[in-house]
Write a structure and sequence with these properties.
This protein is of the alpha+beta class and 96 residues long. It is built from 3 helices and 4 strands. It has 2 domains: 1-56, no CATH class; 57-91, no CATH class.
């Protein structure tokens, strides 16, 4: 049986825990309660132990969205995101 959560190594060497998508769906009511009490830790989910989505508090999302589309930072953010999405190689520190 597959584990409900797995460790995933990010390109910068940091590790995150990835929850199976089906489990994440069940955890949404608990995450909402955590957000209401001021916790801002994200819920990272995906299949095959790969991060594919994240749930964050709405106010945090608004802050990130505003920064992403700020005129001075948009080009850099867009270029970086586009490069990461078009690179077919798995992202890990060993293949930088």
């Amino acid at each position: 049986m597959d584990s409900e959560e797995a460790s995933y190594l990010l390109p910068d060497g940091e590790r995150v825990w990835v929850i199976k998508t089906s489990t994440a769906a069940d955890l949404l009511p608990q995450m909402l309660e955590r957000f209401r009490f001021g916790h801002t830790d994200p819920l990272i989910f995906g299949d095959s132990a790969r991060p594919e989505g994240v749930v964050v508090p709405f106010e945090l999302w608004r802050t990130l969205d505003t920064r992403t589309f700020h005129e001075d930072g948009f080009d850099t953010t867009y270029t970086l995101a586009r490069a990461r999405l078009t690179d077919p190689a798995p992202q890990s520190p060993s293949n930088k």
